[in-house]
Structures are given as C-alpha cells and as structure tokens.
C-alpha cells in the first residue's frame, strides 16, 4: 500500500498547545507553505473558529479540491467518532467536543482524527522503516517479511502506536498501546514515561551532578548528548549514565510490549536522536534474562532483538539462520529459518513528516475501504 504517487489532496493540522499549523498533502508531500495561527486553547468557540479559518486559508491556496481532512489531536478522545475530551493543554475541549462531525458539517468532507503517536507509526509503516526493512530482506534473498510495526515517540512524553497488515490498531476505547503507563523498572512505583522521555535524561543528569532539578535551567537532551559524546564540556560520566538508564527503562517497557506484539519497532521524537547512547543498554535489556520461581532462567522475550542502527547487527538480522529441512517420509526439502527476531530502528521519515504521511495515508485508506465496501 503506497500513496507516494496519489494525486488526491488531504488537509492536515498540527495541533500544538502554542500554534495550530495547517497544510495540505498530495502524494506524501506537502504542497503549500503551511498556515500558522495562534492556538486558542481556553475558549471553545474561538478554538473552533481558528481551526475552521486555518483550513479555509489552506483551501484558498489549492487549485484542486481536497478529498478529506486528517490530523492528529491530543486526547483523551473517541477518535473513530471524532470526539475530543482534552483536559490538558487544550482545556477548551474538556467534557467532550464533537470536533470531527463539526468539521464535516463545515467543509462537507470526511474528517479523520487520530493520536499523533498512532499516525507516526502509520506513516513509518506506509513509507518508512517497515517497507525499507522488507526491501532489505528481499535484496538479501531472505524470504522473511514483516507486517507488524510497533512504534514509540520519545519526547516530552512517551507515546506508542501499532500497525498490523496496513491497519492502525487503536483498540475499542481509542486507548491501545498506552505504553507510557507501564511500570518503570528503575522506579517500580512510577510510570515508565518518567524514565523514557526528555525529562528522564535531564533530571537524571541533574541528580548525578548536583545541579537544581529544574527543567527550565538544566541542560537539555541535546546538550547532555553532546557532553556524553565529548563534544561539549560537562560531566561526561553523568551524561552517559543518564542516557544508559533511559535505555534500561525503555528496554524493559518494550520487552513487556513485545511479549504481546511481534514485529519491528521504530522510535521517533527528539530523544531518539541520542540512540547511540541508549540503544546498547536497550538491546542488552531486551536480550537479557528473566527468572522463574526456582531461579530458572528464561530469555526476557522469545525473539532475539537486533539494533537496526548498527551495520554489523543489520547483517546478522538480514542473514538469519536459514537451513533446509526434509519433509518426513519424502525427499522434499523446505527452507526454514528458526531464528525468531525483531529489529529496532529510528524513524526513516522524521517524526513530524511521518505523522503527516500517516494522516494522509490513513484518510485515503479509509476512503478506499469505504468505496470498496459500497461496490461489494
């Protein structure tokens, strides 16, 4: 499923707490200069007026009519029905607002709203990591192909998303893959998010160096990354440990997730740029052991985990352990690769672009499914 050459246009929105950025996509590419308007977060009527005005300004720039509106919007929400119930950074939507149906009435277009983490993974499944890995496997002569992609975003928070066989999985309550609420291995009475986001790196570095635990004045993740790599001055050992601990917490959370899901993993968000510093610990954690009642040791997860950012590990991942086995009571042989494996890599598209492509592809996929159902 690819929409890179599709001529249909979809309107999109990046709904931040400070600005609303509106645009239009055709063939997986942005085709206009985005329109930015100050976010109206407190008063519903003003917020709705801003969203409507932004989409109309985008439409004025187009020479072809769009076929849909599709975008990410912060939850909680009933995404399939387009109902937002955000009480965080967009309190105007508290209590439940039928944003999707409202926009459908204003523009006479189908409207699709999702979580940004979900759309990030959808974009990577359509045009990013998933197809690239499958092409690499094909080029290597491997019969193995992946149809499942789990993804996490590592930024101000810790989000997740899941795509299987081209379909986004959001669950019956629009609440699937809420990985941020998993238990934190390092601080078991806390959520995983506090150990797997930007604040985790910043606060751990501050804790180790004795500087004030103030996100506003402490070094940011990029600065701490540069300190760890010896590019900038600072406490290198503390910086390395801050990222190592993030890898431990993230690896444990992903291990729990991958016991229920079986596929590739993609990481996005600003913190993922420091993967060189936390990926080794993440891989060690996932390829580690866990014990039973009698101290029997088991692999942490069934699959062997490979770092797709490492050339040597990519080679092993692509090669597998192929062999020929004989069908009983015959001379016929069958190719068999007993190595159960998953790969973990970073975004191929960039997080923001992956979300946009995900929004575009999701809308067209839903439209195509609806049209096919009518024909049947």
Automatic annotation (TrEMBL):
Which domain of life does the UniProt lineage start with?
Answer: Bacteria
User: What SUPFAM superfamilies does the database record attribute to this sequence?
Assistant: Actin-like ATPase domain (SSF53067)
Keyword set includes Transferase: yes
Gene3D superfamilies xref list:
3.30.420.40
Record keyword Metal-binding present: no
CDD domains reported in the protein's UniProt record: ASKHA_ATPase_ROK
Q: Keywords in UniProt for this one?
A: Kinase, Transferase
For this UniProt entry, the molecular function terms from Gene Ontology, in alphabetical order, are: kinase activity
What does the sequence similarity comment in the record state about its family? Belongs to the ROK (NagC/XylR) family.
This protein's name: N-acetyl-D-glucosamine kinase
Please report the organism this UniProt entry assigns to the protein: Pontiella desulfatans
Gene designation per UniProt: nagK
């Amino acid at each position: 499923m690819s929409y890179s050459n599709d001529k249909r246009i979809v309107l999109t929105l990046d709904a931040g707490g400070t600005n609303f950025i509106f645009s239009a996509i055709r063939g997986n590419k942005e085709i206009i200069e985005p329109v930015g308007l100050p976010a109206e977060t407190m008063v519903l009527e003003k917020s709705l007026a801003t969203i409507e005005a932004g989409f109309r300004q985008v439409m004025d720039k187009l020479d072809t009519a769009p076929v849909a509106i599709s975008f990410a919007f912060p939850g909680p929400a009933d995404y399939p029905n387009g109902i937002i119930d955000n009480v965080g950074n967009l309190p105007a939507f508290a209590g439940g607002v039928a944003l999707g149906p409202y926009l459908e009435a204003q523009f006479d277009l189908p409207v699709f709203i999702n979580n940004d983490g979900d759309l990030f993974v959808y974009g990577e499944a359509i045009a990013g990591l998933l197809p690239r890995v499958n092409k690499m496997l094909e080029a290597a002569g491997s019969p193995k192909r992946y149809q499942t992609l789990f993804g996490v975003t590592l930024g101000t928070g810790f989000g997740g998303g899941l795509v299987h066989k081209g379909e986004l999985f959001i669950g019956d309550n629009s609440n699937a893959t809420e990985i941020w609420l998993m238990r934190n291995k390092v601080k078991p009475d806390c959520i995983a998010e506090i150990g797997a986001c930007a604040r985790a790196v910043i606060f751990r570095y501050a804790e180790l160096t004795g500087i004030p635990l103030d996100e506003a004045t402490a070094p940011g993740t990029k600065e701490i990354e540069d300190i760890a790599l010896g590019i900038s001055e600072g406490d290198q050992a503390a910086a390395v440990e801050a990222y190592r601990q993030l890898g431990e917490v993230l690896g444990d959370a992903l291990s729990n997730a991958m016991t229920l899901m079986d596929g590739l993993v993609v990481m996005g968000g600003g913190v993922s740029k420091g993967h060189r510093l936390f990926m080794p610990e993440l891989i060690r954690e996932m390829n580690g052991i866990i014990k039973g009642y009698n101290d029997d040791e088991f692999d942490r997860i069934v699959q062997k985990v490979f770092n797709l950012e490492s050339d040597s590990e990519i080679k092993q991942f692509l090669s597998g352990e192929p062999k020929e086995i004989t069908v009983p009571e015959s001379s016929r042989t069958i190719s068999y690769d007993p190595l159960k494996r998953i790969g973990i890599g970073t975004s191929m598209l960039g997080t923001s672009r992956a979300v946009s492509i995900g929004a575009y592809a999701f809308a067209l996929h839903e439209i195509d499914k609806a049209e096919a159902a009518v024909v049947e």
